[in-house]
Amino acid sequence: MGLLGDLFPGIEIPRERNWDNEKVIAEVITENGLQPDEDFQLKVVQLDELLAIRHCVFIMGSSGTGKSENWKMLSGAKIKQGNKCVCRDLDPKAITTYDFYGYVSLATREWKDGVFSCILRELANAPDTNSKWVILDGDLDANWVESMNSVMDDNKLLTLASNERILMKPHMKLIFELRDLKYATPATASRAGITFITEKRSQWFSYVQSWISKREDDTPERKEIILGLFEKYVDETLSTLKKEFKHMCPTLDFNLVMSLCNVLQGLLTQENVPKGDAKEAVLLETYFCFAAVWAFGSGYSITDGFDFRKAFSTWWKGKWTAIKMPMKGSVFDFFIDKQTQKFVGWSQIVPQLEYVSTTPMDAVTVPTGEVNRVRYCMGIDHSGWNA
Q1: What pLDDT score was predicted for residue 381?
Q2: Residues 118 and 95: beta-carbon distance below 8 Å
Q3: Quick one: the chain helix, strand, coil %, rounded to 5?
Q4: Those residues with Cβ within 8 angstroms of residue 11's Cβ, 6 or more apart along the chain or in another chain
Q5: Is 258:64 a contact under the CB 8 Å cutoff?
Q6: CA 35, 37, 40: angle at the middle one, nearest 5?
Q7: Are the C-beta atoms of 220 and 186 separated by less than 8 Å?
Q8: What is the mean pLDDT of the chain?
Q9: CA distance 148 to 189
Q10: In degrees, to the nearest 5, what angle opens at C-alpha 352 toward C-alphas 346 and 354?
Q11: pTM of the model
């Protein structure tokens, strides 16, 4: 479409669409508990179109953009349409190059098969002609991908150190899940079709919608309130974090929102927020703010002489005033007391240390507010949600 747009500028040319196929893809997405977002469906269709003309495809994008779900949904759609699809996925970076391709033992001169060579041989020797995909989920580097060039080009041939040659059949495809092509050579990059998935708001918002829909104990009204809190707080907070703050290590929006959902899963319980409570909406927002503070701000520290953790606390108190937090201290110094449903300092619940002189000092843990804070966060139960 980009080439046509360059040839005929100013003319919008609609793409050819297979409506029956797109309908099945949308059904499979819904059946798997995901959201049939238009952009997500488009990427699944684009992958299908690429696989129709190329036997090697790169799915590129940062973590959380849905690369894995992309090929899984396409595979599910093909199966639902009666076309069996066999998928084998592995991470090339999790094993050595020898274990990936195989090697000849120097001591015994025996050939030891690698994981990839075993998978490729198994699929190539299968008598049927059903679709067979090998998914390589890991970043490219010259240690393992250069030996793949003959497989990726029109030869479709893997030559092993044992002189064995494994030929990819026409119904076999090679799919790479990549973050970028930083360490790929031009010879590698030119041998595959590429579909790039951009990081967008719709990705983390679809995750939130799926998370809320799986909270079976919540009423429709409560789910609506929780979704409204995400819309109220998350967009502007993420935008400000990118402009004014810096994490210790690179952090994606999707990771931050996933952390928020995990913390909320442990906090929004019947004990903390009873159903039908007159102040249910206020309690939900209070616990949401507490979870958001830790999900978004706990990764900050003093970087290059600047205290980002303190700056985040100041910004949060000044920006979000619907839920009043104590002005003394930072937002990380308080938790929500279950009895009063108000913010209380961690230092107020430090137990009295009863030390016995016969106990060695290295066996004693001195209780502090920081210890209580860490124990509380580690004790939050996330078991109700499998991310």
Answers
A1: 61
A2: no
A3: 50, 15, 40
A4: 5
A5: yes
A6: 105
A7: no
A8: 88
A9: 12
A10: 145
A11: 0.85
